[in-house]
Write a structure and sequence with these properties.
By secondary structure, the chain is an alpha+beta fold. It has a single domain, classed as 4-Layer Sandwich (Double-stranded beta-helix). It has nine helices and 15 strands. Strand 2, helix 1 and strand 3 form a beta-alpha-beta unit. The relative contact order is 0.24. The site of fe (ii) ion has 4 residues, from loops.
Length: 286
Protein backbone atom coordinates (compact mmCIF):
# COMPACT_ATOMS: atom_id res chain seq x y z
CA UNK A 1 0.00 0.00 0.00
CA UNK A 2 1.16 3.52 -0.86
CA UNK A 3 0.90 5.33 2.51
CA UNK A 4 1.52 9.05 2.96
CA UNK A 5 1.69 9.95 6.69
CA UNK A 6 -0.58 12.79 7.85
CA UNK A 7 0.50 13.60 11.43
CA UNK A 8 3.55 12.81 13.56
CA UNK A 9 1.43 10.62 15.88
CA UNK A 10 -0.83 8.75 13.42
CA UNK A 11 -2.76 8.79 10.16
CA UNK A 12 -2.05 8.07 6.51
CA UNK A 13 -3.53 8.79 3.10
CA UNK A 14 -3.75 5.76 0.82
CA UNK A 15 -3.86 6.30 -2.94
CA UNK A 16 -3.37 2.84 -4.47
CA UNK A 17 -6.11 0.81 -2.79
CA UNK A 18 -9.43 0.30 -4.58
CA UNK A 19 -12.21 -0.36 -2.08
CA UNK A 20 -14.59 -1.45 -4.87
CA UNK A 21 -12.46 -4.59 -5.36
CA UNK A 22 -13.11 -7.52 -2.99
CA UNK A 23 -10.42 -7.96 -0.31
CA UNK A 24 -8.35 -11.07 -0.83
CA UNK A 25 -6.28 -12.40 2.09
CA UNK A 26 -3.17 -10.46 1.10
CA UNK A 27 -4.90 -7.08 0.73
CA UNK A 28 -6.86 -7.67 3.92
CA UNK A 29 -3.65 -8.41 5.86
CA UNK A 30 -2.05 -5.23 4.45
CA UNK A 31 -5.12 -3.20 5.43
CA UNK A 32 -5.25 -4.58 8.99
CA UNK A 33 -1.52 -3.96 9.46
CA UNK A 34 -1.98 -0.37 8.25
CA UNK A 35 -4.88 0.10 10.71
CA UNK A 36 -2.72 -1.23 13.58
CA UNK A 37 0.14 1.07 12.62
CA UNK A 38 -1.58 4.31 11.48
CA UNK A 39 -5.03 4.15 13.22
CA UNK A 40 -6.52 6.52 10.60
CA UNK A 41 -6.59 5.83 6.86
CA UNK A 42 -8.06 8.13 4.22
CA UNK A 43 -8.81 6.67 0.79
CA UNK A 44 -9.68 9.54 -1.59
CA UNK A 45 -11.91 9.26 -4.70
CA UNK A 46 -13.73 6.07 -3.71
CA UNK A 47 -17.48 6.58 -2.96
CA UNK A 48 -18.25 2.84 -2.94
CA UNK A 49 -22.04 3.00 -2.41
CA UNK A 50 -23.90 1.29 0.42
CA UNK A 51 -23.89 -2.25 -0.99
CA UNK A 52 -20.14 -2.35 -1.54
CA UNK A 53 -19.46 -0.55 1.76
CA UNK A 54 -21.39 -3.19 3.68
CA UNK A 55 -19.64 -6.02 1.79
CA UNK A 56 -16.26 -4.36 2.52
CA UNK A 57 -17.24 -4.02 6.19
CA UNK A 58 -18.02 -7.76 6.31
CA UNK A 59 -14.65 -8.53 4.69
CA UNK A 60 -12.99 -6.80 7.67
CA UNK A 61 -15.19 -8.31 10.38
CA UNK A 62 -18.67 -8.45 11.86
CA UNK A 63 -20.75 -5.35 11.10
CA UNK A 64 -22.14 -3.62 14.17
CA UNK A 65 -25.85 -2.71 14.13
CA UNK A 66 -26.52 1.01 14.50
CA UNK A 67 -27.77 1.53 18.07
CA UNK A 68 -30.58 3.97 17.19
CA UNK A 69 -32.90 1.74 15.07
CA UNK A 70 -31.93 -1.27 17.22
CA UNK A 71 -32.77 0.43 20.52
CA UNK A 72 -35.83 2.35 19.35
CA UNK A 73 -37.47 -0.12 16.95
CA UNK A 74 -35.54 -3.39 17.46
CA UNK A 75 -34.55 -3.07 13.78
CA UNK A 76 -31.14 -4.00 12.37
CA UNK A 77 -29.57 -1.33 10.16
CA UNK A 78 -25.81 -1.37 9.76
CA UNK A 79 -25.61 2.22 8.48
CA UNK A 80 -25.58 5.48 10.32
CA UNK A 81 -26.13 8.68 8.35
CA UNK A 82 -23.89 11.55 9.37
CA UNK A 83 -25.27 14.81 8.07
CA UNK A 84 -28.60 16.43 7.32
CA UNK A 85 -29.54 14.82 3.97
CA UNK A 86 -32.44 12.38 4.37
CA UNK A 87 -33.37 9.26 2.40
CA UNK A 88 -35.78 11.28 0.22
CA UNK A 89 -32.97 13.72 -0.67
CA UNK A 90 -34.26 16.65 1.40
CA UNK A 91 -31.96 18.34 3.93
CA UNK A 92 -32.84 19.18 7.55
CA UNK A 93 -31.93 22.56 9.05
CA UNK A 94 -30.16 23.54 12.27
CA UNK A 95 -33.32 23.47 14.41
CA UNK A 96 -34.44 19.93 13.54
CA UNK A 97 -34.16 17.53 16.48
CA UNK A 98 -32.10 15.05 14.40
CA UNK A 99 -29.56 17.78 13.55
CA UNK A 100 -29.38 18.79 17.21
CA UNK A 101 -29.00 15.14 18.31
CA UNK A 102 -26.05 14.68 15.94
CA UNK A 103 -24.24 17.59 17.65
CA UNK A 104 -23.49 15.01 20.40
CA UNK A 105 -20.69 13.90 18.02
CA UNK A 106 -19.03 17.30 18.46
CA UNK A 107 -17.70 16.14 21.86
CA UNK A 108 -14.44 14.13 21.80
CA UNK A 109 -15.46 10.47 21.79
CA UNK A 110 -14.77 7.03 20.42
CA UNK A 111 -17.59 5.25 18.61
CA UNK A 112 -19.72 2.79 20.56
CA UNK A 113 -17.60 2.91 23.74
CA UNK A 114 -21.00 2.71 25.49
CA UNK A 115 -21.54 -0.85 24.21
CA UNK A 116 -20.33 -3.97 26.05
CA UNK A 117 -18.19 -4.71 22.99
CA UNK A 118 -17.07 -1.37 21.54
CA UNK A 119 -16.40 -0.84 17.84
CA UNK A 120 -13.12 -1.91 16.25
CA UNK A 121 -13.18 0.49 13.31
CA UNK A 122 -15.61 2.95 11.76
CA UNK A 123 -15.81 3.23 7.98
CA UNK A 124 -17.23 6.51 6.67
CA UNK A 125 -17.94 7.39 3.03
CA UNK A 126 -18.52 11.03 2.08
CA UNK A 127 -21.06 11.76 -0.66
CA UNK A 128 -22.00 15.39 -0.01
CA UNK A 129 -19.81 17.70 2.08
CA UNK A 130 -20.27 21.32 3.23
CA UNK A 131 -18.03 23.88 1.50
CA UNK A 132 -17.23 25.24 4.96
CA UNK A 133 -17.24 23.55 8.38
CA UNK A 134 -18.01 19.92 9.07
CA UNK A 135 -14.41 18.81 9.52
CA UNK A 136 -13.68 15.85 11.80
CA UNK A 137 -10.77 16.08 14.21
CA UNK A 138 -8.77 13.13 15.52
CA UNK A 139 -6.11 12.50 18.17
CA UNK A 140 -4.09 9.40 18.98
CA UNK A 141 -4.94 8.10 22.45
CA UNK A 142 -1.91 5.80 22.05
CA UNK A 143 0.43 8.81 21.75
CA UNK A 144 -1.51 10.40 24.65
CA UNK A 145 -0.77 7.39 26.87
CA UNK A 146 2.90 7.38 25.81
CA UNK A 147 3.19 11.05 26.87
CA UNK A 148 2.02 10.32 30.45
CA UNK A 149 4.62 10.21 33.24
CA UNK A 150 5.45 6.82 34.74
CA UNK A 151 3.56 7.90 37.86
CA UNK A 152 0.45 8.80 35.83
CA UNK A 153 0.67 5.48 33.98
CA UNK A 154 0.80 3.51 37.22
CA UNK A 155 -2.37 5.34 38.36
CA UNK A 156 -4.39 5.01 35.15
CA UNK A 157 -3.30 1.62 33.80
CA UNK A 158 -5.45 -0.53 36.15
CA UNK A 159 -8.57 1.69 36.23
CA UNK A 160 -12.07 0.72 35.08
CA UNK A 161 -14.36 3.42 33.64
CA UNK A 162 -18.16 3.43 33.45
CA UNK A 163 -19.31 4.50 29.97
CA UNK A 164 -22.91 5.65 29.73
CA UNK A 165 -24.75 6.78 26.58
CA UNK A 166 -27.61 8.38 28.50
CA UNK A 167 -25.04 10.42 30.44
CA UNK A 168 -23.25 11.67 27.31
CA UNK A 169 -26.48 12.49 25.47
CA UNK A 170 -27.95 14.26 28.53
CA UNK A 171 -25.39 16.98 27.75
CA UNK A 172 -27.40 17.80 24.59
CA UNK A 173 -30.81 17.75 26.29
CA UNK A 174 -32.21 15.96 29.37
CA UNK A 175 -34.70 14.04 27.19
CA UNK A 176 -32.40 13.43 24.19
CA UNK A 177 -32.60 9.64 24.63
CA UNK A 178 -35.97 7.88 24.45
CA UNK A 179 -36.82 5.43 27.27
CA UNK A 180 -36.61 2.49 24.79
CA UNK A 181 -33.13 3.52 23.65
CA UNK A 182 -31.98 4.11 27.23
CA UNK A 183 -33.15 0.62 28.25
CA UNK A 184 -31.19 -0.92 25.36
CA UNK A 185 -27.93 0.79 26.40
CA UNK A 186 -27.27 0.37 30.14
CA UNK A 187 -23.91 1.67 31.48
CA UNK A 188 -20.92 -0.57 30.77
CA UNK A 189 -17.47 -1.12 32.33
CA UNK A 190 -14.41 -0.52 30.14
CA UNK A 191 -10.70 -0.52 30.73
CA UNK A 192 -9.19 2.99 30.82
CA UNK A 193 -6.02 1.64 29.23
CA UNK A 194 -6.19 -0.88 26.41
CA UNK A 195 -3.44 -2.85 24.68
CA UNK A 196 -3.34 -3.52 20.96
CA UNK A 197 -3.15 -7.34 20.71
CA UNK A 198 -1.04 -7.18 17.53
CA UNK A 199 1.57 -4.61 18.55
CA UNK A 200 1.41 -4.64 22.38
CA UNK A 201 1.10 -0.83 22.39
CA UNK A 202 -1.06 0.73 25.10
CA UNK A 203 -3.58 3.52 24.72
CA UNK A 204 -6.11 5.50 26.72
CA UNK A 205 -9.77 4.69 26.11
CA UNK A 206 -12.15 7.45 27.19
CA UNK A 207 -14.21 10.30 25.66
CA UNK A 208 -17.67 11.81 26.07
CA UNK A 209 -19.36 8.55 27.10
CA UNK A 210 -16.87 8.03 29.98
CA UNK A 211 -18.80 9.01 33.09
CA UNK A 212 -17.03 7.84 36.25
CA UNK A 213 -14.12 5.75 37.41
CA UNK A 214 -15.04 2.66 39.34
CA UNK A 215 -14.26 3.14 43.05
CA UNK A 216 -13.67 6.90 42.71
CA UNK A 217 -16.09 9.67 43.69
CA UNK A 218 -17.71 11.87 41.03
CA UNK A 219 -15.40 14.86 41.50
CA UNK A 220 -12.20 12.79 41.38
CA UNK A 221 -13.54 10.85 38.39
CA UNK A 222 -14.43 13.95 36.40
CA UNK A 223 -11.12 15.64 37.24
CA UNK A 224 -9.12 12.67 35.96
CA UNK A 225 -11.22 11.96 32.84
CA UNK A 226 -11.46 15.62 31.78
CA UNK A 227 -7.77 16.20 32.54
CA UNK A 228 -6.75 13.26 30.36
CA UNK A 229 -9.01 14.40 27.49
CA UNK A 230 -7.74 18.00 27.71
CA UNK A 231 -4.09 16.88 27.61
CA UNK A 232 -4.71 14.37 24.83
CA UNK A 233 -6.52 16.89 22.61
CA UNK A 234 -4.12 19.84 22.85
CA UNK A 235 -4.00 21.54 19.40
CA UNK A 236 -0.58 20.18 18.42
CA UNK A 237 -1.83 16.58 18.79
CA UNK A 238 -4.88 17.07 16.54
CA UNK A 239 -5.25 16.03 12.91
CA UNK A 240 -8.16 17.83 11.24
CA UNK A 241 -9.76 15.96 8.35
CA UNK A 242 -11.41 18.25 5.78
CA UNK A 243 -13.79 15.92 3.95
CA UNK A 244 -13.82 15.71 0.16
CA UNK A 245 -16.60 14.06 -1.82
CA UNK A 246 -15.55 10.47 -2.48
CA UNK A 247 -13.43 10.06 0.66
CA UNK A 248 -13.60 6.80 2.54
CA UNK A 249 -12.03 7.09 5.98
CA UNK A 250 -11.36 4.16 8.30
CA UNK A 251 -10.43 4.90 11.88
CA UNK A 252 -9.49 2.66 14.77
CA UNK A 253 -11.91 3.26 17.64
CA UNK A 254 -9.72 1.34 20.05
CA UNK A 255 -7.07 4.05 20.11
CA UNK A 256 -8.33 7.33 18.57
CA UNK A 257 -10.67 10.03 19.82
CA UNK A 258 -12.57 12.14 17.31
CA UNK A 259 -15.09 14.95 17.22
CA UNK A 260 -17.11 16.82 14.58
CA UNK A 261 -16.60 20.55 14.19
CA UNK A 262 -20.16 21.40 13.22
CA UNK A 263 -21.48 23.13 10.11
CA UNK A 264 -24.39 25.37 9.19
CA UNK A 265 -27.15 22.91 8.24
CA UNK A 266 -29.36 25.81 7.10
CA UNK A 267 -26.82 26.63 4.37
CA UNK A 268 -25.14 23.32 3.54
CA UNK A 269 -25.96 19.73 2.65
CA UNK A 270 -23.99 16.88 4.17
CA UNK A 271 -24.31 13.17 3.49
CA UNK A 272 -21.89 10.63 4.88
CA UNK A 273 -22.63 6.95 5.41
CA UNK A 274 -20.98 5.05 8.23
CA UNK A 275 -20.62 1.39 9.09
CA UNK A 276 -18.67 -0.04 11.99
CA UNK A 277 -16.94 -3.33 12.64
CA UNK A 278 -17.59 -4.91 16.03
CA UNK A 279 -14.59 -5.27 18.35
CA UNK A 280 -13.07 -8.62 19.27
CA UNK A 281 -14.71 -8.73 22.72
CA UNK A 282 -15.23 -6.79 25.97
CA UNK A 283 -12.27 -4.58 26.87
CA UNK A 284 -12.11 -6.17 30.32
CA UNK A 285 -11.15 -9.47 28.69
CA UNK A 286 -8.30 -8.02 26.62
FE1 LIG B 1 -18.18 9.28 16.05
Amino acid sequence: MQLEPLHADFGARVTDFDISQPLDAERRAALMAAIDRYSFLCFPDQAPGDDRQLAFTREIGEPEPNHLPKGEENRIDYFGTIGNVQEDGTALGNDHRKTIFLTGNNMWHTDASFKPVPALVSITSAYEVPSEGGETQFISARAAHARLSEEQKSTVDPLIVIHDYVYSRSKIAPDAVSPELARSLPPVRQRLVRTNPGTGQKNLFMGSHAKTIEGWNDTESRDLIEGLITEATAPEHVHTHRWQTGDVVIWDNRCLLHRGLGYDADKHRRLMRQTRVRGAGPTLEE
